[in-house]
């Protein structure tokens, strides 16, 4: 893994704003793991993609993480500590197919990846999404030794397969329970490490644009030369021009 450079940050900010969050996360991972093929990154379990986004976040911006949001009840702004350490420490999901017995059905399944997640964006509701996901992730199914159609599994089997896939990949979904100090509203936030990283990329990019603007105007330097400097050196010059 390599940390995102100032040039990476600006390019990702420019390129990724209009992308789907899944594609955005993969683009950021590609910058951090330039030697991994795009198809290999897309084939990582969703939780592993999340773990890498969290690792890239820490490697690029440092260990201190804070997020802010708004209470859905009253609009109060709150601070949240993203569970980065837990995401980094979670066991990695299996990357090979796994045999599973569910209610007398013998199945071979694989954990969902980014391609599956992207394919589900067209589903209208959670039930449809679960069925579509199982169709993609159940590689084979049989009952009493007789092969059966993975697309025609009973609802109870589908639900258990969904639970089993979630248990195999802890990082695929990170939920944070929150309570508002002002209105006592309670809710659960689904934390997305990729989107968290992109918010910080955006904030850093805006700051970099401002720094380039200020230094280019003061010294006539080129953008590429300003971005090639360390943050410390840029900061020293910014102090000299009184920002
Ligand atoms: Zn509130």
Structure, described:
This protein is an alpha+beta fold and about 240 residues long. The chain folds into two domains: about 5-90 and about 175-205 and about 215-240, no CATH class; about 100-170, no CATH class. About 50% of the residues lie in helices and about 15% in strands. The chain contains eleven helices and eight strands. The chain has helices at about 5-15, 20-30, 40, 45-60, 85-90, 115-120, 125-135, 155-170, 195-220, 225-230, 230-240; strands spanning about 65-70, 75-80, 100, 105-110, 140-145, 145, 175-180, 185-190. It has a four-stranded antiparallel sheet with strand order 3-4-5-6. The protein has a two-stranded antiparallel sheet with strand order 1-2. Helix 2 (about 20-30) crosses helix 4, helix 2 (about 20-30) crosses helix 9 and helix 4 (about 45-60) packs parallel to helix 9. The longest helix has 27 residues, at about 195-220. It is elongated. The site of zinc ion has 8 residues, from loops. Zinc ion binds near residues 73 and 185.
| Shape, per Cα inertia axes | elongated
Instruction: Detail the poorly predicted runs.
Output: none
Overall pLDDT: 94
Distance between the termini: 33 Å
Strand content: 15-25%
Helical region count?
11
Bound molecules: zinc ion
The domain tally reads 2
């Amino acid at each position: 893994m390599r940390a995102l450079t100032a040039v990476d940050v600006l390019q990702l900010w420019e390129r990724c704003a209009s992308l789907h969050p899944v594609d955005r996360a993969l683009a950021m991972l590609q910058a951090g793991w330039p030697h991994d093929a795009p198809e290999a990154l897309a084939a990582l379990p969703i939780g592993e993609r999340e773990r890498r986004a969290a690792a890239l976040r820490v490697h690029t911006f440092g260990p201190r993480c804070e997020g802010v949001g708004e209470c859905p009840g009253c609009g109060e702004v709150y601070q949240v500590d993203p569970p980065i350490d837990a995401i980094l420490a979670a066991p990695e999901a299996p990357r090979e197919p796994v045999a599973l017995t569910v209610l007398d059905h013998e199945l071979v399944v694989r954990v969902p990846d980014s391609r599956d997640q992207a394919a589900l964006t067209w589903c209208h509701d959670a039930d449809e999404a679960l069925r579509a996901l199982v169709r993609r992730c159940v590689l084979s199914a049989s009952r009493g030794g007789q092969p059966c159609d993975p697309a025609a599994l009973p609802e109870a089997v589908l639900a258990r397969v969904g639970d089993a896939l979630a248990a195999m990949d802890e990082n695929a979904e990170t939920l944070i329970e929150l309570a508002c100090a002002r209105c006592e509203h309670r809710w659960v936030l689904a934390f997305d490490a990729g989107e968290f990283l992109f918010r910080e990329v955006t904030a850093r990019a805006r700051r970099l644009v401002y720094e380039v603007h200020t230094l280019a105007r003061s010294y006539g330097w080129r953008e590429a030369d300003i971005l090639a400097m360390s943050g410390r050196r840029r900061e020293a010059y910014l102090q000299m021009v009184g920002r």
